[in-house]
Amino acid sequence: MSALAYEARGPASALAMARWRRRSRLIRQLRVLLPVLIAAIVLSLVGLVVYRSVVGQAARPVEAEAPIRLVNPRFLGRDIQGRSFVITAASAVRDENDYQRVVLDRPAMVVDGEGLSPMRLSARSGVFHEGDGILRLQGDVTLNDQAAAFDTPSAVFNTATGVLEGEGLITGAGPLGEIRARSYGVYDKGERMVFKGGVTGRITPNSPR
């Protein structure tokens, strides 16, 4: 009986031993693979964080340097003479180096819009500085009010003092007739207009004296 029992137990023990050895090998493999897998996951996460940081830093300067674009901007205020002014444009871009400097596309301006004779200005381009209140117009500048209309290549309007001045040929017609000059200035709420440099004109016979 003892011999038979031994023979019966022999194959079972061998099978159990084989299973134990397989489990042991699996455990040893897992002990190696699991740390490797964990290390790979950690490295992947670190790499992702570093990548996003580098890409984010590369993108930030581009965003910071992008100019601020304004669509149909409006600038409102009053000069020291109490006249209101409104500056508009088709579009505008703020200077990257000077936030208060605004470059205007097709600017237009109305001074004393509530008054009896508002002054209107328009141009192809311009620059308005909100700090000092100076509006500079360039290209096909037109100036008109109820009594006169002039064309000139440039104009500078001081929104603080209400004075308009310009260098460059100015032509147009006023209450006394046609006039040409190389520079001009508009003062005293638009009631006094001074022309300088090669002034020529033609008095209209029906003009009031």
Note down, in words, how this protein is organized:
The chain has one helix at 2-65, and strands at 69-71, 74-78, 84-88, 91-94, 101-105, 108-111, 119-122, 125-129, 134-144, 149-158, 163-174, 177-187, 192-196, 200-203. It has 209 residues and is an alpha+beta fold. β12 (177-187) and β13 form a beta hairpin. The radius of gyration is 42 Å and the shape is rod-shaped.
Oligomerization: single chain
> Helix-strand pattern, N to C?
HEEEEEEEEEEEEEE
Low-confidence stretches: 1-8
- Termini separation comes to 151 Å
Number of helices: 1
Q: Given the C-alpha coordinates, what overall shape results?
A: rod-shaped
Q: What is the β-strand count?
A: 14
Rg, rounded, reads: 42 Å
Q: Report the β-strand fraction as a percent range.
A: 35-45%
Largest sheet: 14 strands, antiparallel
What level of helicity do the residues show? 25-40%
What structural category characterises the helix and strand content? alpha+beta
Q: Could you report the average pLDDT, rounded to the nearest whole number?
A: 83
Quick description:
The protein is an alpha+beta fold and 209 residues long. It has one helix at 2-65; strands at 69-71, 74-78, 84-88, 91-94, 101-105, 108-111, 119-122, 125-129, 134-144, 149-158, 163-174, 177-187, 192-196, 200-203.
